[in-house]
Design goal:
The complex is a heterotrimer. Chain A has a single domain, classed as 2-Layer Sandwich (Heat Shock Protein 90), CATH 3.30.565. Chain A contains 4 helices and 5 strands; from the N terminus they run E-H-H-E-E-H-H-E-E. The mean pLDDT of chain A is about 90. By secondary structure, chain B is of the alpha/beta class. Helix content of chain B is about 65%, strand content about 10%. Chain B has 2 domains: about 150 residues, Globins (Globin-like, Orthogonal Bundle); about 110 residues, STAS domain (Transcription Regulator spoIIAA). Chain B has a 5-stranded mixed β-sheet with strand order 1-2-3-4-5, with helices on both faces. Chain B starts with a helix and ends in an 18-residue tail after the last helix. By secondary structure, chain C is an alpha/beta fold. In chain C, about 45% of the residues lie in helices and about 15% in strands. In chain C, helix 3 links the parallel strand 4 and strand 5. In chain C, helix 1 runs parallel beside helix 2. The N and C termini of chain C lie far apart (about 45 Å). The mean pLDDT of chain C is about 90. Classes of the chains: A alpha+beta, B alpha/beta, C alpha/beta. Chains in contact: A-C, B-C. At the A-C interface, helix 1, helix 2 and helix 4 of A face helix 2 and helix 3 of C.
Chain lengths: ~130, ~290, ~130
C-alpha cells in the first residue's frame, strides 16, 4: 500500500535536521494543513532524536500510504540500540532516562494518528507512526 | 461477444433512438436537463461505448478509458445539476432495453441470444456502477467542502477593541471544529497583535470533558504565545457540569458575562471607560 | 562552526533564532548566552522565535535551561513571536516552559522586560537587604 518509499539514515544531528526537512516537504506536498505539518515534523524530530541518542543511531523509512480514500505519511524509526525494557513506563509523560523532559515518546503519540512501538532489550527499537490527511 | 460487437456497430442509430425513448418514459427530469443536452450526451456516450466494445469486453481496460472518463464527467455534471445518484445510474441502465431489442432481432438461436444478453447486461451494469461510484464520490466531496466552509463561517473572530479579540462560539463543539476554532483564534491574535482574547461560550449548549479539554488547550496555547485568554458566557448549568466532571479551570480566568470579561480586558490593557463630563460647546469653531 | 549572533540592547540581550538548529548549535547558544549575561551583567534576555517553525522537546529543554541559568545570573528571559502552529503542538506535546515569560513580538517583549525590571529594581545604595 506504499505509493512512495524512501530510507534515510539517522546517524548524526545533521541527519535529524535533514529528516525534519524531508517530512516537512512530503507533508506539504500532500497538502497537510500547517498545524498538521508542524505536528508531524515535531514527532519526527522527537523520534529521530530518540533513535540517535538512546538507540545509538538508526534510520527512518518514509512512506506515502493509502487506505481506501485517505492518504497519509508513514514513518518507521528503527535503531539497533539497547532497547526499552519497560515500554509502558517509557510511554508515560515525564518519564526520562536522559535528563530530558520525558515527553519524546508519549508526546509524539499525541501528535499522530497511529502510533506503534516494538522494542526488545538487546535488539533495538522500532517506532511506526502514521499521520492521515 | 463478436455478435454483440457487430450488433452495436450496425444498429447505433436505432439503439440511440430506443434509448432516448426509454428515458422519456421513465426518469426524464426535464426540469434538470433539456432535450438537446440529453441527446448530445447520449450520442457521445453511445459512440464511445460502441467504439470501446469493438476492442474489448473489459470495462477496466484501456479501450474503455475514454468511456470511463466521459461517465465521470456525466456523474459530476448530474450531481451539480441536482440529479440523485440513482437517476444518474438509470441513465446508463436505460440502454439495456434498446440493446436487447437489437440483439433479439439479430440472433435467432436462443442460447446464443442469452449469452450475448448476459454479456451486454454485465457490461452495462459495471458501467452503471462506475457512474454511481463517481457520483457518490463527488457528492461526498461537496459535503466535505461545505462542512469546511460552514466551520469557517461559524467561528468568526471579532475585534472588540484595539488589542482585544472576542470569539463567540455558537453550536456544538466537536474535535474537528475545535481545531479550526483554535487555529483561527491564534492566527487572529498574531495578525491583530492582540493581548487579550475572550472566548464566549454562551451559544454552546453542552460542555463535556472533551470540549473543556479543547478549550483549555486553546487557552494554554494563547498564553504560550504571549496573549491572555478569558472564558466568558458560562451559564450556571455549564458551571455545574464542569464541577461535576472534575475539570480543573484553576488557571483560566472566567466570567459569567462577556461584558464583564471585556471590562477586565480593558483593565488589563490599562484602559478605563469614563463618562464625558461636559458636552462639547457648539460654537467653539468660528 | 556557525554561531547564533547575540545583540546587546542596553542592559538586555537579544537573540533571533532563524535557523533549523541542530543540537550542537543549540548547546553553543546556551553557552554563549550565559557567558554574555555574566560579562555584561545583563538583566534581561529576549529570545525571538518568530522564524522557528518547529520547537521540539529538545529545543524546549534548551529554552527552559537558558531561563533557569539566566535566573541564577539575575536576568529575566522573555520568549517572543511563537507561531500558532508551534504553540498548538507544544500544548499537545504537554510541554510547559517554566520561568519564561512570553510576548507576541519583540516590541511587546521589550516593554515586558522594561516593566519587569522597573518593578524589580534594586535600591541604589545596597545595604545588604533585599526589597
Amino acid at each position: 500500500m506504499a505509493l512512495k518509499s524512501e530510507m534515510f539514515p539517522v546517524m548524526c544531528s545533521a541527519d535529524v535536521v535533514k529528516v525534519r526537512q524531508v517530512v516537512r516537504q512530503w507533508a506539504a506536498q500532500l497538502n497537510f494543513s500547517l498545524v498538521e505539518q508542524t505536528k508531524l515534523v515535531t514527532a519526527t524530530s522527537e523520534l529521530a532524536r530518540n533513535a540517535l541518542e538512546h538507540g545509538g543511531g538508526g534510520s527512518m523509512l518514509a512512506e506515502l500510504v493509502e487506505d481506501g480514500a485517505r492518504k497519509g505519511i508513514r514513518l518507521i524509526f528503527d535503531d539497533k540500540g539497547p532497547g526499552i525494557p519497560n515500554i509502558e513506563l517509557a510511554l508515560k509523560d515525564g518519564y526520562t532516562t536522559g535528563g530530558g523532559m520525558g515527553l519524546g515518546l508519549s508526546g509524539s503519540r499525541r501528535l499522530v494518528s497511529d502510533f506503534q512501538i516494538t522494542s526488545e532489550p538487546g535488539r533495538g527499537t522500532t517506532v511506526t507512526i502514521i499521520r492521515w490527511k | 461477444m463478436s455478435v454483440f460487437q457487430d450488433v452495436m456497430k450496425s444498429n447505433e442509430g436505432a439503439i440511440l433512438a430506443g434509448w432516448m425513448g426509454e428515458l422519456e418514459s421513465s426518469t426524464r427530469r426535464s426540469d434538470l436537463i433539456n432535450d438537446t443536452d440529453l441527446r448530445r450526451q447520449g450520442e457521445e456516450l453511445l459512440r464511445l461505448f460502441t467504439a470501446a466494445t469493438q476492442l474489448s469486453s473489459d470495462v477496466q481496460s484501456d479501450a474503455f478509458a475514454s468511456t470511463r472518463e466521459f461517465l465521470r464527467e456525466i456523474a459530476r455534471s448530474r450531481m451539480d445539476q441536482g440529479f440523485t445518484a440513482a437517476e444518474t445510474a438509470l441513465f446508463i441502465l436505460a440502454l439495456k432495453q434498446p440493446i436487447f431489442t437489437a440483439l433479439k432481432s439479430s440472433i435467432k438461436d436462443s442460447s446464443d441470444l442469452i449469452e450475448e444478453v448476459w454479456l451486454s447486461s454485465n457490461l452495462l451494469d459495471k458501467l452503471a456502477m462506475l457512474t454511481v461510484s463517481s457520483a457518490v464520490g463527488f457528492r461526498e466531496q461537496t459535503i466535505l467542502r461545505q462542512q469546511e466552509e460552514m466551520m469557517e463561517l461559524s467561528t468568526p473572530v471579532v475585534t472588540l477593541w484595539d488589542g482585544i479579540l472576542a470569539l463567540p462560539l455558537i453550536g456544538t463543539l466537536d474535535s474537528a471544529r475545535t481545531q479550526v476554532v483554535m487555529e483561527s483564534l491564534l492566527t487572529a491574535i498574531v495578525e491583530t497583535n492582540s493581548q487579550v482574547a475572550i472566548i464566549d461560550i454562551t451559544g454552546v449548549p453542552t460542555v463535556d470533558t472533551l470540549v473543556a479539554q479543547h478549550l483549555i488547550k486553546t487557552i494554554t496555547a494563547a498564553r504560550l504565545m504571549g496573549a491572555d485568554c478569558y472564558l466568558s458566557g458560562i451559564r450556571p448549568a455549564i458551571a455545574q457540569t464542569i464541577v461535576h466532571l472534575g475539570i480543573d479551570l484553576v488557571d483560566v480566568q472566567t466570567k459569567a458575562k462577556l461584558s464583564d470579561a471585556f471590562a477586565l480586558a480593558l483593565k488589563r490593557l490599562g484602559k478605563v471607560v469614563t463618562t464625558i463630563k461636559q458636552p462639547v460647546a457648539k460654537n467653539k469653531d468660528a | 562552526m556557525d554561531r547564533i549572533p547575540i545583540l546587546k540592547f542596553g542592559n538586555c540581550l537579544l537573540v533571533t533564532i532563524q535557523v533549523d538548529m541542530h543540537d550542537e548549535l543549540a548547546l553553543s547558544l546556551q553557552e554563549d548566552l550565559t557567558a554574555q549575561i555574566a560579562k555584561y551583567g545583563s538583566r534581561g534576555v529576549l529570545i525571538d522565535i518568530s522564524s522557528l517553525e518547529i520547537v521540539d522537546s529538545f529545543i524546549g529543554r534548551m529554552l527552559a535551561n537558558i531561563a533557569a541559568m539566566s535566573r541564577i545570573l539575575d536576568a529575566q528571559t522573555v520568549l517572543t513571536g511563537m507561531q500558532p502552529a508551534v504553540a498548538i503542538t507544544l500544548v499537545e506535546l504537554g510541554m510547559v516552559l517554566p520561568g519564561i515569560k512570553t510576548a507576541l513580538n519583540v516590541e511587546r517583549g521589550m516593554d515586558l522586560l522594561k516593566d519587569y525590571l522597573a518593578q524589580n529594581e534594586e535600591p541604589e545604595e545596597s545595604d545588604g537587604s533585599e526589597e
